[in-house]
Description:
The chain is 35% helix and 23% strand.
Amino acid sequence: MRLVASDSCGPLGEEIAERYEEAFPWVTVELEVFNAAVAEEMLRVGEVDLALLSWLGESGDEAPLWSYPFARDGLAVVVHPAMPLEETGLMHLQGIFRGHVQEWGGVVLTVVSREKGSGTRAAFEAAVMGTLHVTPSAVVMPSSEAVVEYVARTPGAMGYVSTLWVGNSAGAGVRPLPLEGGLPTPDALADGSYPLTRQLYLAATGEPTGEAREFAQWVLGDEGQTIAGRMLSWQAGGPGE
Length: 241
């Protein structure tokens, strides 16, 4: 079975594919990871059977996808560990990413964003920027992993990634920044007190059949939901801090 995941869903997709193969050893799951726009296009042209998407693009003249939310994710604002900024709010964050706030505590701020076509970028801009644009001086990175690596080695850097990448071991070199007084813990995502949340979607060109249907039911069932819940259960003081 062929599966594609948008970049921020990559760690979750890899874990789900591995556990599914363990549960059903006669099935091989081939997983590829791209940004959300590329992943959706691969699905639409029939290169894969199912997709794990962090953002559903506008269908325009194309037929709408079959989609079903399978997890709730948050966007974590991550900074270099030595960043003097201890917390922020949505308006302050917008000012930073517009380039209107360029230093804090004597440290020059470096804005780190994602490339066009990234579902994480689309979600961040919809929630934080609205109709405004991120500063042209932003450093643009092609993946969540690249954002984390750049922020971890650059004093004054600030970026955004899925909470899947905060709890991931790759996120150990960055510090999640409280937003509107809170961090994107599972409870805060569930009760809506953390402002940057989104659904992750299982998607197909039509209602899945055959092995794809079996896989979709497994992801949406107890086994798949347990995996998603565990991987999204980052807590303050956990691996990313």
